[in-house]
Amino acid sequence: MQIALFITCIGDTFFPEAGRATVEVLERLGHEVVFPSEQTCCGQMHLNSGYRPEADRLARRFVNVFGEFELVVSPSSSCVGTLREHYGIENVYELSELLVRRLGVEDVGASYRGRVVYHPTCHSLRATKVGDAPLRLLRNVSGLELVDLAGAEECCGFGGTFALKNADTSTAMLDDKCAAILATGADTCTALDGSCLLHIGGGLSRRGAATRTIHLAEILASR
Amino acid sequence: MTTFPEAARRELANDQLRTNLRNATETIRAKRGRAVAELPDWEALRDAAKAIKEDVLANLGPYLERFEEEVTAAGGHVHWARDAAEANAVVVEVARRHDATEVVKVKSLTTDEIGLNDALAAAGIHALETDFAELILQLDGDWPSHILVPAIHRNRTEIRDLFARTIAPGITSDDPRDLAEASRAYLRERFLAARVGVSGANFGIVETGSVCVVESEGNGRMCTTLPPVLVTILGIEKLLPRFADLGVLLQVLPRSSTGERMNPYTSLWTGVTAGDGPQELHVVLLDNGRTRVLADEVGRQALHCIRCSACLNVCPVYSRTGGHAYGSVYPGPIGAILTPQLHGIEHAASLPFASSLCGACYEVCPVKIDIPRVLVHLRAKAVEATGGAGERAAMETAAWAFESPRHLSIAQRAGALLTRPFARGGSLHRLPPPLRAWSRTRDLKAPATRSFRRWWRKERS
Predict the structure, then answer these.
(1) What is the ipTM of this complex?
(2) pTM of the entire structure?
């Protein structure tokens, strides 16, 4: 099956490894991945910051670039959620929901040594609604020990420009999230959104923690 | 007005407040979860509640007129108040006509919204709050921080000390039972002596002209039945077309609010009945900005709100800052969309941004207000009304970068170059403004040395 990759602006700039992992997983399963080079950003930052006309232009650009594809995959649940909820775009899937719901795959043949905690990001839970798809995938990774996260469904405090405009509140939320992650004793924290991982990773690193933050795609790609 | 971030910083520094808030919101959240999980048709009830409120808003004019007819036919008086001043004037006039120097009140957000207590005080009339938590705040000159649990920011030792200074000299116990008993002894005489009672209302029933108040302590029942004169302030959006609609709303409200299947006291009254309850009844229909909210197609759903406060308890922002940071009678996520609409976006422009858009509020709202969507909608209005030039420039630069892959590549390379001096071990520890706000408490992963698109171009195409 041909699948177009929407890497997202944050993925392109900060997490190219998550994009490469997405390509690897899908190709391993026998799919053809294409990367439309005209893509840029879904418009979420502008939309959520109150710059609607700019956001609308970017969403239109997305449709122009990706409209012809039957299946589009993105390693970011919040960008998928924005495109779906605010712009009614339906051919784009977050990676884990594409694998489990659309392609019916729960075991991608991955293996990962480590104690892993999964943080369900707000938009994966409440906008994209991926449900337990990522957990199903993680449970089938050999060598991986999955541990529970207390207060898992609570926001890490990122929220785009919220992290800057309301830095004190955002940090109070991050403090609690980091404490919950550290309490699990996990060596790896994973999620479906680079942006939240950027926040959690930055918080853990500032606190001197050794916990790695990596995108789910990277775990699924490792063997 | 103090902006939300400034006020939040002050509140976040209060450790006692944060502990109280965490305990209280976590307890209520868990109770609500259990009460809701009992109902197999919870989602259908939410849909029904939303449909009822949509119908009310779509036909508000005719419903209000019919409600007035029914109240009048049952022997009550209806007053139409465009704003706070008009509503307050009605209450002052009624109290004066009956030579009342004190009125007893049941907890009401609407009367807080219009500043009724201050208006009465200016006329020489004391408004006595009879709800336990409201009484605590009134005795201490404080104000509510939670819709349902107004004194959520206080603990029992603080309350014992306050009572010892005010209504119960010599009290030493901080046992909740003893504190409640002290307030009961103080309030009982005042209920019996009052000539005028004042209430808000949860619902006004159009087809019967009835008014409904839902409460836990019984003080509402006292206020609405003991004084010979009763004045009720009703926001115009609080109507329900049919009596049967209570069958839906009274299922979702207590469960969402206190996490109970049913609240202890539900009082309903219809006009005046000889020899039973108040013999003079006034209902004040309050607009005070509501018709302006109604005119906004996206924002009007905020008027569905039944003041249950479920959104406050699940909100990761509210549960850390508390209600005072919102600078309004209506705190939390619902306050962040209601306050700017009622008072004008220019007076509360920071509130729509006081959210990480996590969506927990929408998930629990019993009348399905899509709070995140309204927040985003109001952010656009805030930017239009009060947006700063610095932020606009940054957003326009970003928009330019996203205009084409070539622009984006240039921006990515510029970003990597500009941040390189700050990078150590793949991480940025100290950044210049506006990113300083990030780097004060968090590191930032440095941008990749090779973007995905460059990798793809080199390796795959």
Answers:
(1) 0.97
(2) 0.96
